[in-house]
Amino acid sequence: MAVIAANEEQVALLARLMRAEAEGDGQLGMLMVGNTGINRVLADCLDFSNVRTITDMVFQSPGGFEATQKGYFYQRARDIDIELARRVIRGEMFHPATSSLWFFRPEGNCPEQWFGQWNTGRYKAHCFFAPTASECPQVYR
Q1: Residue 62 CB contacts under 8 Å (≥ 6 apart), including other chains
Q2: Which residues form the Cell wall hydrolase SleB domain (predicted)?
């Protein structure tokens, strides 16, 4: 059962985002980016109180994703990308992105905090950051 509602267009949109943001980190990295996106739709806190759909999340500005804001969100979703997107929509979660609302690719080590949110870990090139459970309980499921 899905943790958020999504039509086929939204599934493909999430798949494109996952590919654009983390294709270089492989399927697991793409799944973690998907987790972060799903968490933003579920969250009713911080920068995401008005994000209710995958479309809202993908195109949120400011506070959204580099892929959509800097022009590398152009590749179509492949079948494998769509299957990965379906997995995170169904609720599969992958550490360190299980409760993350942010990730980024630093030049060096992951900072302990980023915009006041705690580092939950790194996977390949990306560091993941999550709010506390008291700040945003919706992402702790």
Answers
A1: none
A2: 24-129
Q: Which residue has the higher pLDDT, 93 or 71?
A: 93
Whether 14 and 6 have beta carbons less than 8 Å apart is answered as yes
Instruction: Check: CB of residue 40 under 8 Å from CB of residue 101.
Output: yes
CB of 112 closer than 8 Å to CB of 127: no
Q: For residues 58 and 37, is the Cβ–Cβ distance under 8 A? A: yes
pLDDT at 20: 95
Alpha helices in 54-141 (DSSP H): 54-58, 66-69, 79-89
Please, is 29 exposed, middle or buried when counting C-beta atoms within 10 Å of its C-beta (0-12, 13-18, 19+)?
A: buried
Q: Which amino acid would we find at residue 20? A: A
Asked whether 91 and 2 are in contact (CB, 8 A), the reply is yes
